[in-house]
Amino acid sequence: MDRTIFLIGFMGAGKSSAAQALSERTGFPVIEMDAEIAEQEGMSIPEIFEKKGEPYFRGLETKLLESFTAAAPSIVSCGGGAAMREENVAAMHRGGVTVLLEASPEAILERVKDNDDRPLLKGRKNVSDIRALMDQRYPKYLAAADIRIDTSELTISEVCDEIIRKIEAQQNIK
Ligand code: S3P
């Protein structure tokens, strides 16, 4: 494996945990998009949303993704909205392979319920609101994904095995 892996999917789908595990397996560094943006701006993600607004944040995501196109292979844990813009997905495909991590709204709720770092889930931490936002986003997630993995019933290590197996299988086909 020699290409950057972009982990995409809904908030709480397990992108950050899978990125850490994949980094240990591949030796590639992890880039956590939200952490990069927060550091760059000197503000937390909720603060950026509050003070500068969501469109400003989305612009930062696009700029950051474009900077990875020519970078050394890495594991990029993308923000949950990063696959919503076509230019972002094009940048991911220029830079490497996209892996969609999937989980049920129930599993997502379990994983996000005690965390307040996600402005889009403020006041929406219930299965029906999560399902509604997820349904709205799914066509774009599916269009962006080279590979799909359902994480609901898997351990992180199994998720990692599946990702590597599917990427290698795809490379063998090409
Ligand atoms: C967002 C997901 C978050 C973060 C921001 C917006 C989204 O990242 O980028 O709160 O639009 O889905 P995670 O998916 O890592 O929680």
Describe what this molecule looks like in 3D:
The protein has 174 residues and is an alpha/beta fold. Helix content is 55%, strand content 13%. The chain has helices at 15-26, 33-41, 45-51, 54-67, 86-95, 105-112, 127-144, 156-173, and strands spanning 4-8, 30-32, 75-77, 96-102, 147-150. A five-stranded parallel sheet has the order 2-3-1-4-5, with helices on both faces. It is globular. The two termini are 13 Å apart. Bound molecules: shikimate-3-phosphate.
Number of strands: 5
Sheet/helix structural class: alpha/beta
What's the overall geometry? globular
What is the subunit organization of this protein? single chain
Largest sheet data: 5 strands, parallel
Rg calc: 15 Å
| Count of runs of 4 or more consecutive helical residues | 8
Order of helices and strands: EHEHHHEHEHHEH
What small-molecule ligands were found? shikimate-3-phosphate
Q: Which segments are poorly predicted (pLDDT under 50) over 5 or more consecutive residues? A: none
Terminal CA distance reads 13 Å
- Widest sheet: strand ordering: 2-3-1-4-5
- Estimate the mean pLDDT confidence: 94
Q: Indicate the percent of residues in helices.
A: 55-70%
Strand content: 5-15%
Briefly characterize the structure.
The protein is an alpha/beta fold.
Mind sketching the topology for me?
Blueprint lengths: L3 E5 L6 H12 L3 E3 H9 L3 H7 L2 H14 L7 E3 L8 H10 E7 L2 H8 L14 H18 L2 E4 L5 H18 L1
Parallel strand pairs: 1-3, 1-4, 2-3, 4-5
Helix pairs in contact: 1-8, 2-4, 4-5, 6-7
